[in-house]
Amino acid sequence: MIRFSGLVRAMALGLMLAVLGACTAQYRVHGYMPSESDLQQIVPGVDTKASVEDLIGVPAASGVLNDSGFYYIESEVRSFAYQRPKVIDRTVVAITFDQAGVVDNVATYGLQDGRVITLNRRVTQTSDGDIGFIRKLFGNIGGINASQLIGN
Description:
Elements: H1 2-22, E1 26-31, H2 36-40, H3 49-56, E2 61-62, E3 69-79, E4 86-97, E5 103-110, H4 133-137, H5 146-150
Domain Outer membrane protein assembly factor BamE: 31-106
InterPro entries: BamE-like, BamE_dom
Protein name: SmpA / OmlA family protein
């Protein structure tokens, strides 16, 4: 009987440790951030888009208007138990270019520099309006008459 109670205690202790281990916060890092030494090698007025890509890699995002900048983004996310994941740190390196594609400026931003901006997708509207899928699929059924099918 002594062995059985020792086994039960060991199993209970193992279960408690597993439950406590599941309640610890998990941290994940997303994205890519070039090292500070690599960023210091970029010379404004000299380096181009191609030389920046060769030096520190392809950016996570680039400027929408006139392809005016490269953006390297790294985020640290904390997940804890049942709670929603929370961004606890975000760093953005913005490298801007002039019209000729030469580096104009290199700037680093973090969460302390402003608000957290939620990135979302932009949806382009089509010219179809509010026509649903089924209506598009069966839209031509009424446009065909029997005389067109028989052929004279």
